[in-house]
Design a protein that fits this description.
294 residues, binds copper (II) ion, Immunoglobulin-like, Helix Hairpins, five-stranded mixed β-sheet, alpha+beta
Length: 294
Amino acid sequence: MGLDFPKRVRNLAVGAITGSALLFLTGCSDEPHSQIKRLAMPIPASKEAHHMYDLWHWSWLAAMITGVIVWGLMAYVAVKFRRRSEADIPVQTRYNLPIEIFYTVAPVMMVIVFFFFTVQTQDDVLHAPKNLTAANAQADLNVTVTAQQWSWTFNYAKGSDALGGDVVWESGTTANRPTLWLVKGRSVSFDLFSPDVIHSFWIPVFLFKMDVVPGRQAYNHFTLTPDRSGTFEGKCAELCGVYHSRMLFNVKVTDQAAFDAHMAKLKQEGNIGMNLGGAQVRTVAGLDTNGGQE
Ligand SMILES: [Cu+2]
């Protein structure tokens, strides 16, 4: 009877491990598999995103190595110094100064290393001049982004001959997502503006987001260069109110010709001038008929 319990536990453990391994292996199609390889990151779509991607991977590698060493040591001491009988109590050690110094210094060293590479990545990513006018002058395209409850307006001020010195805009509503147009290989400087509350401008494939803070226009801006064409998703990443989850937009990274054609179309539609708040943006009509896309 005495041996029954551990045996049952062992069978249970083997069953659980085999079961979850089977579930894990059969549940893998190609897409999740490549996501696992990228450690859950989307495929980067801008020059700057690769810096974040590398930081993410190397941090995970460092964390895994640390984890393996720590788990290994834990398993080792648990087995090696276990209590072997009722009578024999393992040596009880307290206040081992060298070890205490080691486990204070080692994590501090790790934090310093992570901090160093984080700052380095931040500098690589936020490479645009602090001054908006200088940043706009350096970039190929200028886009002023208005984030407001509950959608986005994109103002294009530079980057296409079709603009002819004008600013054109495209606005969305909760039911009608706007699309942000960008050109592959051409740098774009974004200036973020909010007329109401704090939002966050997030395009996951660029592995980057920045808050859109009222009163901080010309401060919260950044430059990036898309390096992969395609249609991507963008969203608000700051809980900004009831319909926050509806603050979605599309991002289209195309070639210059398609971009020019779209700018000409916006101009033709009369969307001329800087639009820092779409009148229709608060419209919530169609919320229930949007295919439940949250
Ligand atoms: Cu928002």
